[in-house]
Specification:
9 helices; binds zinc ion; 239 residues; alpha/beta; Rossmann fold
Length: 239
């Protein structure tokens, strides 16, 4: 592809990406990013594979039940592409480890399932000027957005238009179905594939200097809805 070429492939090889969550979104994302040839990918997840995960966590098989998610996804990614350096962190993201884990990363991909962790990620991304790809999926619904808050202050200042962060759009825990955990609410497997594929596309496009979609994209089970995102002056994180 002319948009990638050798130059783009080199950019991907030099990139360091961290994926928070090696579950429904993290599995397809990890496989796509390994296949794309991203040089270093860190996986953060302290969870264990359960049989109920297998409808959507496509890097795992029946034989993997009971094993670590981040370790097993690392094996699947390296089976696909042994040249990718995959670092597995069997831990939860916390106030204590986040700043070291995000240090010198080019991009953070949120594949978690809770609001508090997303605020933690958004805050650290702003502090370290790293873009954040956000994804969420439950039942038959999903949403994704790419946030560039603080990543290019010179452009923001010249346009007098600050970029939004995750908390500009979701300042407080959203009400309704979309934030329910999959383990409680249930989920159709392909919805995580749909949302994580959009995330993976944005990650590859961003790292190869292509324009990325900055709108909030929602899938309600039947169709897409796209919502323009703007910076909030009352944002609990970036204002
Ligand atoms: Zn904000």
């Amino acid at each position: 592809m002319p948009e990638i070429n050798d130059e783009g492939q080199e950019l991907l090889l030099k990139a360091r990406v961290i994926i928070i969550g090696a579950g429904g979104l993290g599995c397809p994302l990890g496989l796509y990013l390994a296949g794309a040839g991203i040089g270093e990918i860190t996986l953060v997840d302290n969870d264990i594979i359960e049989i109920s995960n297998l409808n959507r966590q496509i890097a795992f098989t029946n034989d993997d039940v009971g094993k670590s998610k981040s370790e097993t996804l690392k094996v699947s990614m390296n089976n696909l592409n042994p040249d990718v350096k995959v670092i597995s962190i069997k831990d939860r993201l916390s106030n204590e480890n986040i700043s070291e884990l995000f240090y010198k990363k080019n991009l953070v991909v949120d594949c978690t399932d809770n609001f508090e962790t997303r605020h933690l990620i958004a805050k650290e991304c702003l502090a370290q000027k790293i873009p954040m790809s956000f994804g969420a999926a439950v039942r038959q619904e999903g949403q994704t957005a790419f946030f560039l808050a603080g990543c290019n202050e010179s452009i923001e200042n010249s346009n007098k238009q600050k970029k939004p962060c995750y908390a500009c759009i979701f300042p407080v825990r959203p009400k309704g179905n979309i934030i329910s955990r999959c383990s409680e609410a249930g989920i159709l497997g392909p919805i995580t594939g749909l949302i994580s594929s959009i995330q993976a596309l944005n990650v590859i496009r961003y790292l190869t200097n292509q324009k990325v979609s900055e709108t909030l994209i929602l899938w309600d089970g039947l169709s897409f809805l796209e919502i323009k995102t703007t910076n909030s002056q009352n944002c609990p994180i970036c204002s």
